[in-house]
Amino acid sequence: MGEYYLARVYIHPDYQNKGIAREAILLCEKEFADAKFYYVDFPEVMEKNRKCYQNAGYCDTGERITMEGAPALAMFKKTVSETFDPAGVSLPMIYEAEQNELQECLDVIRQSFRTVADQFGLTKENCPKHTSFIPLSFLETQKNWGWKMYALYAGKKIIGYMSLSKESDDAFELHNLAVLPEYRHNGFGKFLLDHAKETVKSLGGNTIKIGIIEESTVLKNWYISNGFVHTGTKKFDHLPFTSGYLEWKGE
Ligand SMILES: CC(C)(COP(=O)(O)OP(=O)(O)OC[C@H]1O[C@@H](n2cnc3c(N)ncnc32)[C@H](O)[C@@H]1OP(=O)(O)O)[C@@H](O)C(=O)NCCC(=O)NCCS
Question: Is the CB–ligand 1 distance for residue 159 below 6 Å?
Fold first, then answer.
């Protein structure tokens, strides 16, 4: 039970070496919620296949399948954990969030932004629109608007989130970037940010805009160290903090 064999993945030569096979493998796996193990085999001599499966979390079992007149097949295996020790998460994956995953994404957003609300003393009374209080209908509406929504998975558990909205031909806005508190400081925020940059480039854009709490100096410096430039601030009467704006420009 819970064991699956991953059949051959084929990528057109024009599209090879772009990480598409890895994405395809992960998308296939996502279909099997009960999976505990995946097996795959491929000709032992094919170094590119080895790298690709390793990048998708497969490990060499050491087993070889040999048949006369055919190259030996290497047997690789991937183990899917149900529970994750935050420090032990080595291969998180980003998938586009689907409608039926929005509630879990919302839980991640609300839990993640609670630390911000606590840090700045934001409550439903003084800041009802803060991200830590948003309802599910916000995410549903954003999905209907065509926002690109991404969940960061550790196995089957969503541990991070972000979304992108198209603001003009070349500019996108990044929203609700979040990593659950217990999973922070492992590079997952940067992983999501890098994915946002790649996504924007692949959609023909070259700019990411973001709004933050200006007083979050650590966060602001983190964005700056990730290639963002501070572009300004604004004070709104209905918000008990200053809004700060940053922008990233791709090459
Ligand atoms: C911002 C956030 C996504 C970063 O996630 P992460 O997985 O810890 O990110 P990384 O591991 O790639 O980077 C960690 C760095 O983030 C920076 N950082 C950003 N916000 C921080 C905060 N509130 N507290 C501490 N460090 C923070 C620090 O520089 C940290 O460096 P360190 O690990 O050396 O201490 C996460 O802190 C979060 O969800 N915060 C709450 C929601 C939020 O503020 N989102 C941004 C909205 S604009």
Answer: no
Question: What's the domain range around 99?
Answer: 88-249
CATH for 149: 3.40.630.30
Q: Please give the distance, rounded to the nearest whole angstrom, from the Cα atom of residue 31 to the centre of ligand 1.
A: 31
For ligand 1, say whether the CB of 120 is within 6 Å of any of its atoms. Answer: no
Rounded mean pLDDT for each run of 10 residues along the chain, 251 residues in total: 90 89 83 84 93 90 92 92 58 87 97 97 94 97 97 86 97 98 92 95 96 97 98 93 97 73
Take atom 25 of ligand 1 and give the residue whose Cα is closest.
218
Q: Whose CA is nearest to atom 26 of ligand 1?
A: 218
What is the predicted pLDDT for the residue at 19? 82
Question: Any residues with CB less than 8 A from the CB of 160 and at least 6 apart, and which?
Answer: 92, 108, 112, 151, 152, 178, 179, 180, 183, 188, 189, 191, 192
